[in-house]
Write a structure and sequence with these properties.
Zn(2+) binds at residues 651, 653, 675, 736. The protein is of the alpha/beta class. Among the domains are: 59-104 and 111-247, TIM Barrel (Alpha-Beta Barrel), CATH 3.20.20.210; 396-417 and 499-674, TIM Barrel, CATH 3.20.20. Bound molecules: glutamine and zinc ion.
């Protein structure tokens, strides 16, 4: 007799129609009172629990909901809001949004000293979800300070559900935070554990069936002190008497496997997709009286599960566990869209290959039926099998020309015509740029007029010729502004682009787009990642006409502007039927052809943006070298089409590159522009120490705020940069693209920036 229970580690919260986003933004504009925002939250939770129950899950999950971010929920729950916010009796939700969004000077009481920047935001492991970073100091105190989790549990119980509560474990919570005074955050554990004990005791008293406690850091290369802290911490937590399901996900446990299996908890959840090879081992090591939850359905991607393969993977585990097993998605479904139902624009075949959150719940139910009452599952299994087989054998997925080209690739494709020193001489002769050349990162303000025109064109309400004329006018405007400002290398401004990945994906073969496939990125912000389902090819040039038009308007060089292969890959849902490296190489070849065509059209400088290169790094150190190898190769193949006198730029947003400087140098871009202003150029030190050989444009001003920096401020940053990087290698530019800024502030800031560069030239 088999006993299979079903659950999910978490469910998306933004709402199938992004109801939470709408409500939040209305609340922030002062149009929706907190009580109504809370009503929206309650309705969403009720709907999400009902879906879990309807799919036959054994428990609904409470505690995965958040108005902004689940890590920030814990900051409230543990009463560790940083003192710098000077909270003074504000309601909980108001404090929460202040932590998340910051507060500007005088907003509250008119006196100085109450302004506060939001908590820093950073990526949740290797996902595109961003969490708010808890801030600690040596004397951070923790208290049980919020009733929200218990209220949500009570809400679910009142609706008649069996409830599994979920929270982040103490070690992961501390790991995700930072000590602003440089002390060791692990030292706070002893102070934090009693509060966890209180939370668990309360949950037990409420009668929850289980408490899922997430410790995904068990999948990281942890310092020994952190590993050692687990046993004692969980021994203490176990005293509360609530049945604990320790959840890990996103990567294999490896050296932490036996530790995870031995911790004094009632159950263990493991990622059965990314750590499939460890399943049998876990089944062996985990004592039989404990629950094993296998995350067998991928929570990170949108492909229909190969159920036969899943059942084959589960078979030895079911045997070893005497038929007792929990099945789940590998991780929270936060990282996938809600449902395929509204995707009316996807063709039926492609749609049959996919599974979003709701469909994944059904897959879990079907897997259980297949294990417990195989006869009842046959028909549904056959259907699923047919869809998976169709995808595997579909001629649509393969493009013979792409495959031939890929197979024929040699190291030659990665090589520029000449080494950097020679290229620089040729490029200098062609471009005749002054020392400290000035440029921007690509986009200029996306004004309401631009958005309106693009939306009307997409809806078919604006004719192609009229749209083109409107964009040409925008390009001309951007070019004239840049000329008047005295910039040295111009850009066309990217007015025609909605998004730097979507723009290319829409024109490449092998990509599909959803109408409603939203995934939360942070707070109320959602993204709609493209789906790469087949071989990638470029049927026609994608940017050449715009670039040629821009260049025809001016004597100054205009940069061609492309998104790099790694970034396109990283910000999409990627096919899982071939290695990511192969998909990256296919994209690289497509973008390479664009580089060649831009060059043919007379464009002397091509920028290949790779802001996501660093964020693609695998969680485990051991896998990083392989990733960096193919990522660097993909970039080099893309740039390899450029002649020696064509200057290749690349751009990356953050500049914490110290650990991968050899690979950044191996890209061999003639110029790299990076974000450095917020660190006052400190991030540049690594490049200096490494003696980075090619040209660098360290950002001299932060484009994330409307503030206009003065000339002297930027001059000071440039002098700092010059102390670290030889003057001949330095470019002058903002941190990133200007699409979110207004024209007025942009003009003033760039004017000051050009002034700063000119002053530096005189000094020089
Ligand atoms: N070229 C892009 C822009 O200027 C780069 C954006 C990015 O780095 N995220 O908007
Ligand atoms: Zn950027």
């Amino acid at each position: 007799m088999k006993n299979i229970e079903l659950h999910v580690p978490g469910f998306p919260r933004i709402g199938a129609r992004r109801e939470l986003k709408t409500a939040l933004e209305r609340h922030w504009r002062g149009e929706l009172p907190a009580t109504e925002l809370e009503a929206t939250g309650r309705a969403l939770r009720a709907r999400h629990w009902a879906a879990q129950r309807a799919a036959g899950l054994s428990f609904v999950t409470a505690g995965d909901f958040a108005y902004y971010d689940h890590v920030a929920n814990h900051v409230l729950m543990f009463g560790c809001e940083p003192a710098r916010f000077h909270f003074d009796g504000e309601p909980e939700l108001a404090r929460y949004f202040t932590l998340a969004r910051g507060r500007s000077e005088g907003e509250r009481c008119g006196c100085a000293g109450h302004d506060a920047a939001a908590l820093e935001m950073t990526k949740w492991f290797d996902t595109n979800y961003h969490y708010l970073v808890p801030e600690f100091t040596a004397d951070t105190a923790f208290t049980l300070a919020s009733e929200r989790l218990f209220d949500e549990v009570a809400e679910a119980k009142a609706l008649g559900h069996a409830v599994k509560a979920t929270l982040i474990g103490p070690l992961t919570f501390l790991w995700l935070g930072k000590c602003t005074d440089g002390t060791d955050r692990l030292a706070l554990l002893d102070r934090l554990l009693p509060v966890y004990g209180q939370v668990l005791a309360r949950l037990k008293a409420q009668g929850v069936a289980w408490v899922q406690i997430d410790e995904p850091i068990l999948g990281l290369d942890l310092p020994q002190a952190w590993r050692s802290a687990f046993e004692n911490a969980y021994w203490q937590l176990n005293q509360a008497g609530a049945p604990l399901l320790l959840a890990t996900y996103f990567s294999p446990l490896e050296e932490n496997l036996s530790l995870a299996c031995r911790l004094p908890v009632a159950g263990l959840h493991v990622d059965g997709v990314r750590a499939a090879h460890e399943l049998v081992n876990v089944a062996d090591w985990l004592p039989v009286h404990k629950v094993l939850s296998v995350g067998i359905v991928d929570g990170r991607n949108i492909w229909r599960t190969d159920l036969d393969a899943a059942l084959a993977r589960l078979a030895p585990v079911v045997d070893k566990r005497g038929g007792n097993l929990w099945l789940a998605t590998s991780c929270s479904l936060l990282h996938v869209p809600y449902s395929l139902a509204p995707e009316t624009a996807l063709d039926a075949e492609l749609k049959s290959w996919l599974a979003f959150a709701h469909e994944k719940l059904d897959e879990l139910a079907l897997l259980r039926t297949a294990l417990t009452a195989p006869d009842d599952a046959q028909q549904a299994l056959a259907q699923a099998r047919a869809a998976v087989a169709a995808r595997r054998t579909s001629p649509r997925v393969r493009d013979a020309a792409v495959r031939t080209r890929l197979a024929g690739l040699t190291a030659e494709a990665e090589r520029r015509e000449a080494p950097f020193a020679e290229r620089r001489t040729l490029q200098q002769a062609r471009l005749r740029l002054p020392p400290f050349p000035t440029t921007t990162i690509g986009s200029f303000p996306q004004t309401p007029a631009i958005r309106t025109a693009r939306a009307a064109f997409k809806r078919g309400e604006l004719a192609a010729a009229a749209y083109e004329a409107a964009m040409h006018a925008e390009i001309e405007h951007a070019i004239r502004q840049q000329e008047a400002l005295g910039l040295d290398v111009l850009v066309h401004g990217e007015a025609e682009r909605n998004d730097m990945v979507e723009y290319f994906g829409e024109q490449l073969a092998g990509f599909a787009f959803t109408v409603n496939g939203w995934v939360q990125s942070y707070g109320s912000r959602c993204v709609k990642p493209p789906i790469i389902w087949g071989d990638v090819a470029r049927p026609a040039p994608m940017t050449v006409a715009w670039a040629r038009h821009a260049q025809s308007l001016t004597e100054l060089p205009v940069k061609g502007m492309l998104t790099g292969p790694v970034t396109i890959l990283q910000w999409s849902f990627v096919r899982d039927d071939q290695p990511r490296a192969d998909t990256a190489t296919q994209i690289a070849l497509a973008i390479r052809d664009e580089v060649a065509d831009l060059q043919e059209a007379g464009i002397a400088i091509v920028q290949i943006d790779e802001p996501a290169l660093r964020e693609g790094l695998p969680l485990r150190q051991g896998q990083r070298a392989a990733y960096l190898d193919w990522a660097v190769r993909a970039f080099r193949i893309t740039a390899g089409a450029a002649r020696a006198d064509t200057q290749i730029h690349t751009h990356m947003c953050y500049a914490e590159f110290n650990d991968i400087l050899p690979q950044i140098a191996a890209l061999d871009a003639d110029v790299i522009t990076i974000e450095t202003s917020r660190s006052a150029m400190a991030l540049l030190d690594g490049f200096g120490n490494y003696r980075y050989p090619n040209d660098i444009g360290p950002g001299v001003y932060d484009i994330h705020a409307p503030r206009v920096p003065g000339r002297d401020e930027m001059l000071a940053l440039l002098r700092r940069a010059r102390a670290v990087i030889p003057a001949r290698q330095l470019w002058v530019n903002p941190d990133c693209g200007l699409k979110t800024r207004g024209w007025e502030e942009t003009r003033q800031a760039l004017k000051n920036m050009v002034d700063a560069a000119r002053t530096l030239r005189v000094e020089h």
